[in-house]
Design a protein that fits this description.
CATH superfamily: MFS general substrate transporter like domains
Distance between the termini: 44 Å
CATH topology: Growth Hormone, Chain: A
Oligomer: single chain
Strand content: under 5%
CATH architecture: Up-down Bundle
CATH class: Mainly Alpha
Number of strands: 0
Length: 398
């Protein structure tokens, strides 16, 4: 992997940008929490980050598959850099919401473009390794940024964190210019569909991907509802400080490294499909344990296990989806997955905010975990049936 020049640039730049993004994410949520917006206010902010990805499913997929990747990645990174820089000068709740929209809109176009470009950089045979490396580096970079974000909020120096994030986006734009590998539709640009169903239609023809794709969306609705609740569990129910809230990301990073290491060793789409269901199922089961955590350090240990399971499922499903999708259509497939997953997240945010208000943070984690585990058990049986049907279809008639 690291012998490939463009892979070194892309992986390193995205890891640095991930650290910067974590500074902004943690700082923004803590500022909103300390500003008294409540669980519904935090949920509303997370919803703002979701809507642009949902609204641009069709056009973002077409752009990723037809427009020069260098142009898309450079422009989106510069837009994000400008938005975060502005937030450093005016970190008020209203400004957090406005810049969140701009950052999310640029990310809606950048994400599928990066996802489709990296396999072309490394080659089809290294897809699994590339995705595992990306996830592993993110697992290291994200907690560094999150810990710094929490510390800066505590020290009242959050503006410097936002400006540091802006610098990482500028570096990402520079990396996009340096990468020699480029991806664009060329002669097929005019034929590319802008329909939001274009990527879904590609997946619909794959008997292995369909049950996983559908069940993961359900899993997102059930489990990501805890996102707006987490800060209230950690800060209020467990009595953790701002610094400890940021420190949690270090434990999550350790889990991410474990998950990436496991996923990187899994070869073959049959095993990848099964590993994805087991990993997500384990993550859901651990959520139940988190709901009963007696203190912060038990919670931190469970977070490590949770992210290890989620990381294994995420990386193996990503490799499976990429390797079973035609190269020319990967941008649209990624945009569809990202958009539908964010749509599910939008529903989950509302459910999580309501659940936290009615049940409290602990019961919300328990209920979400049980429902998510049941969902992935059902998905596992569906994947096994699809694999057996596919294997039977390949057996020649006597």
């Amino acid at each position: 992997m690291w012998a490939i020049r463009d892979a070194r640039i892309a992986l390193a730049a995205r890891a640095v940008s991930t650290a910067g993004t974590s500074v902004t994410s943690i700082a923004a949520i803590l500022l909103l929490h300390d500003g008294g917006v409540g669980a519904l206010g935090v949920a509303a902010f997370l919803a703002v980050l979701v809507i642009p990805t949902v609204a641009t499913i069709g056009i973002a997929g077409r752009v990723a598959d037809t427009v020069d990747s260098r142009v898309v990645l450079t422009v989106t990174a510069l837009v994000q850099a400008a938005a975060v820089c502005a937030l450093g000068f005016a970190p008020a709740p209203v400004m957090i919401f406005v810049t969140g929209v701009l950052i999310a809109l640029a990310q809606a176009f950048a994400q599928p473009t990066w996802q489709a470009l990296v396999p072309r950089i490394v080659g089809e045979e290294r897809i699994g390794q590339a995705i595992s490396w990306q996830q592993g580096l993110a697992a290291v970079a994200s907690p560094i940024g999150a810990g710094l974000g929490g510390l800066l909020v505590a020290l009242d120096g959050v503006a410097w964190g936002f400006w540091a994030d802006a610098a990482t986006y500028a570096a990402l734009a520079g990396a996009a210019l340096l990468i020699r590998t480029r991806r664009h539709g060329g002669a097929h640009a005019e034929a590319a569909s802008t329909s939001w169903t274009a990527g879904i239609r590609v997946v619909a023809h794959d008997r292995i991907l369909v049950p996983l794709f559908a069940s993961i969306l359900v899993f997102v609705v059930l489990v990501e509802g805890v996102n707006p609740v987490e800060v209230f569990l950690v800060r209020d129910a467990l009595g953790a400080s701002d610094w400890q809230y940021g420190l949690t990301e270090f434990f999550a990073g350790a889990g991410g490294l474990i998950g990436a290491a496991i996923a990187g060793r899994i070869v073959g789409n049959t095993v990848r499909a099964r590993a994805a269901t087991v990993g997500f199922g384990l993550a859901a089961a651990v959520l139940v344990g988190i709901g009963f955590a007696p203190g912060y350090w038990v919670y931190a240990a469970l977070i490590t296990l949770l992210v290890a399971g989620f990381g294994t499922g995420n990386a193996t499903f990503g490799a499976l989806l990429t390797s079973r999708t035609p190269e020319a259509q990967r941008g649209r497939v990624y945009a569809a997955l990202n958009g539908l997953a964010r749509t599910a997240s939008l529903l989950a945010l509302g459910l999580g905010g309501v659940a936290n208000a009615l049940l409290g943070p602990r019961p919300t984690f328990v209920v979400a975990g049980i429902a998510g585990a049941v969902t992935m058990v059902v998905a596992g049986f569906a994947v096994l049936r699809a694999q057996r049907a596919e294997a039977s279809a390949l057996i020649p008639a006597p």
